[in-house]
Predict the structure.
Amino acid sequence: MVFAPFLNKNNIMNKITAAITAVGAYVPDYVLTNDILATMVDTNDEWITSRTGIKERRILKKEGAGTSYLAIKAAEDLITKSKLDPKEIDLVIVASVTPDMPVAATAVYVASEIGAVNAFAYDLNAACSGFLYGMSTASAFIESGKYKKILIIGADKMSSIIDYTDRTTSIIFGDGAGAVLFEPNTEGLGMMDEYLRGDGAGRAALNIPAGGSILPPTEDTTKNNQHFVVQDGKTVFKNAVSNMADVSEKIMQRNDLSHDDVDWLVAHQANKRIIDATSSRMGVSDDKVLMNIQRYGNTTSATLPLLLSDFESKLKKGDNIVFAAFGGGFTWGSIYLKWAYNTEHKN
């Protein structure tokens, strides 16, 4: 589906838009380096770095802790920094492919644990595009006028679904979480436009074969390692490169943005070569591309908010930011957002 721009030059400035007003993040302490991985699978630092740009990733080692632990920590970081009263939060969405458990929504538990007692909550699964889709959802809720404060958390414990004897996946993924708060804005800032896509033909190229309703867990599925992520790397890479670049270019064209107008590219951190291809298509210089893949790897739903947290001090009020993501399913899309605050002026 194609959405019309939320705000253009002909709109009045008092239109309600959804703006990010606070960010938070959390990554586990344990660092899984390329050298450590080389003792587990047939690989080495040069091989991984040259193909992905990844040097290390974080792994949650705490016993009994799942994705909710990561999400709660990221939310608490946001709450502390912004001095937000969690009772004022209207909605909590957790974007994730690694919920704590089936059926019981992780977001509901997270909301309770952070004190968001007046919020409703639910999970959103769109693979690596999950946070991007969550931004779209938050924007629609804010623009409806019904809700004022919406917390979107991207969180994944990817180590729980990775086979560390599989070189094609074990080198890529890490654990982490990031959170953003959306609130109404009438200054012409926040969400400007979105272009979100999907193609079910791609689901065979990146999935977990067993554990769902088609192939429920059995002794055989466990023995055959069918509860871990598998992917056709070449197909995923080809589609990610073309689709992320296409939608990013599309969002610029729809909003009359030149490469000079774009202040920052916030792209899903799946592979440095994919990010480079996207920025090249957009004509955006390297100094405008936010990147932390070398430190965290692919944290799936958490990559975009982790970028915002890591580079928050660089973002200035009014900055034009283009988000882009691609994930299993296939899902992908791009969002144009104008940043709503200066970090040094927030108390």
About this structure: Residues 1-7 have pLDDT under 50 and may be disordered. The first strand starts at residue 17 and ends at 26. DSSP finds eleven helices and 14 strands in the chain.
